[in-house]
Amino acid sequence: MSSFVRRMAVAALGVVLLVVAGIVLWPTHPNASWLFGDADRLLTPLVGDGLPGILLHFGALELAANIAMFVPLGFLGTLALPRRGWWVAPVACFALSVTIEMTQLLLLPDRTFSLRDIVGNTLGGLLGTVLAAAARGIAGAVTRRRRSTAVE
């Protein structure tokens, strides 16, 4: 991975961390009614077309949002690290998630501690790490192919 890609990953990771911090450290829990109401209106027609009804449950939507929020952290964290240090990104996502939940428990009275959030965030970090490893593998294969084609 080039140093340029690493530097860009670090810069993007900083931006994503600021956005995540703004979301998770907001003093009050996001109003579930606006999120659920919009999702309900959008997804209900799809349930009749075969979409699982469980997706209309707020807990499922919240879990999906937690996974999605941490995918970029795992992805960019993995790209920012040397190839052999890939394992640090999902561990850091887990540690960050525990820190967030403890902060919400101890310092934000209108927020709640949730093991489900820790699981979702960690799964998102792991998924991001897998996607980054796949991207590195594809980039490496393309580079090797270009080099072998140039030599011929």
Automatic annotation (TrEMBL):
Keyword Membrane set for record: yes
Keyword Transmembrane found: yes
Alphabetically ordered keywords of this record: Membrane, Transmembrane, Transmembrane helix
Segments forming domain VanZ-like: 61-133
Transmembrane regions: 54-79, 86-106, 118-139
Superkingdom of the organism of origin: Bacteria
Pfam families assigned: VanZ
Stored PANTHER family: INTEGRAL MEMBRANE PROTEIN (PTHR36834:SF1), MEMBRANE PROTEIN-RELATED (PTHR36834)
Protein name (database record): VanZ family protein
Organism field: Gryllotalpicola protaetiae
